[in-house]
Amino acid sequence: MYLILGCGDVGYSVAAELKSRGAELTIIDRDQKRVNHLKQMGYNAVLGDFSLPEVLKEAGFERAEMILIMAPDFSSVESALGAIGRLKVELKIDPVVVARVTDEAEVEDVKRLGASDALPSSQLLARFTLDRFETLRGMMREKRLRALIQELVGGRLAIVLQTNPDPDSIASGVALKRYAKAFGLDSDLIYDGVVGHPQNRALVNLLELNLLEAEKIDFTKYSSFALVDVATHANCSLPKEIIPTIVIDHHSVPSGEVKGRYVDTTIVGANATIMTNYLRYGGIEIDKATAAALIVGILTDTMFFTRGAKAPDFDAFEYLMERVDTDLLNRLLWPTITSDALDVLATAIKNSKLKGGYLLANVGEVKDRDLIAQAADFLLNRDGVTTTFIYGICGDVVRVSARTKDVSLHLGQKLRETFSEIGSGGGHARMAGATIPLTYFGKASRAAIKRELNRVVARRFLEAVGLEKPRQKRKKKAANSKPRTKAQAQKEKPAELPPAQQRLL
Questions:
Q1: Mapped to the 3 state alphabet, what secondary structure does 175-213 carry?
Q2: Residue 43 and residue 177: Cα distance in Å, rounded?
Q3: Residue range 366-393: average pLDDT?
């Protein structure tokens, strides 16, 4: 909640901008007429002297996360800061406090008196103020997260990444682990699925990360839990009965589906941007390797600033570039490709079939399941391809990796619907996977299973996306026709039947 102290022309401009964004705010002003007018306009306004602690309490000081002192004179600002300082000690809370000053020379004075930041009147245009508030809101969130982390010290935090974590997810987990450690809380990075793309592997290897597989973890040994780059149980390994303590995600998710003591779902291009700002506002030094990981997270999730990038993404990128090891960054952005990966890619290209923008390829048997995902990523760049669907046998299961550029298709949902009866499937809208145990094929030989893959796997997917007619429906239609006697069947010929019955044969 925002608490605005003083509502002249500048204060009103700020209040109007915040209200237009749906922010909760309360205004305190000394002018009865102005307060009445604000109430008529739908604002929550309180009449009183904001240099008095009791007035601040009445207006909801205890719930305020940011206090904006918009009074035009230094003496009023000074009095308000004195009252705020006393209440912060009394109530043991620490909101972000921003004060308006009339002269640049007063900036350091108000900071010395307790303000988090100061804005000169010459800069207090509403648009500038709003942009500045994005930074101040980040500072406000960081204070809240820091307070929670300090509460959790003594236990151990499980940082759960999204299923099949990408560079943004891995980098965000690394940053949260570093942030928690800075305030005394130890943690582990936990994942499920595969770390498949070369960039993912490069991150893990070059940064010497210790990622723990969820299936080998006893979650009951942890005292707190955090989700990064994922907001719900739907796409991660956290057991459904466990409510996360911390949720930090940049995707748009209905608020009713997100649960946690601390939730930050800021809509930006990359989750790494959010985590960069937590380190930044927490005063935590970002080492060169972590900076490189966060930059890779930002660049890959925004597709080098061509998809969904916001102003904070550019700002975080600029901040990190001043701290990164450029040689390490280049190695992470363009990792080497192994000979095994080239072999699987060659097989995928040779066996690929393109139908309506959908490229499907059977790569046969592979030693490493991650190579299937790499082929799906690479072939999405082929001319005329909107969706890739690559599959093969790995160990005792069939692995599927799919990618898409089609905004009308949610791959995760489609693969879940398509393969849940014979295995499992799911993932993101643009990237998903599926697993089918070989036991589904009964006692069939390995060679027979290979022959069946195209029918069981590829055809199911083509039917699911509407590129082939489902055979089940045709069978159902045939089953609804009237049964004929053996004698009738011998006498009747298809050419002699009415058209409607001919179609049933």
A1: HHHHHHHHCCCEEEEEECCCCCCHHHHHHHHHCCCCEEE
A2: 41
A3: 91
List, in sequence order, every residue forming a beta bridge with 226; answer none if it has no partner.
Answer: 159, 246
Answer whether residue 181 shows pLDDT above 90: yes
**Using CA atoms, how far apart are residues 495 and 79, in angstroms rounded to an integer?**
99
Helix axes 311-321, 271-281, angle to 10 degrees: 60
For 224, 291, 490, the CA distances from 284, given in Å and listed in that order, are 22, 12, 86
Task: Tell me the pLDDT tens digit for each residue of 243-297.
Answer: 999 999 998 888 788 999 999 999 999 999 999 999 999 999 999 999 999 999 9
> Which are the contacts of 14, defined by CB distance < 8 A and separation ≥ 6?
4, 68, 70, 124, 126, 129, 130
Model confidence over 299-350: pLDDT tens digits?
999 988 988 898 899 999 999 999 999 999 988 888 777 788 889 999 999 9
* Burial of 98 per CB tally in 10 Å (0-12, 13-18, 19+): buried
Local structure of 449: helix, strand or coil:
helix
* The two structure tokens encoding residue 205: 């290897």
- Beta-strand relationship, 424-427 and 431-437: antiparallel
- Residue ranges and CATH numbers for the domains of the chain are 2-124 (3.40.50.720), 149-333 (3.90.1640.10), 339-464 (3.10.310.30)
Distance CA 350, CA 368 (A): 19
Residue 496's pLDDT is: 40
Question: Residue 389 and residue 433: Cα distance in Å, rounded?
Answer: 9
What backbone torsions phi and psi does residue 258 show, to the nearest 5 degrees? -100, 125
Short-list 25, 62, 21, 20, CA closest to 45: 25
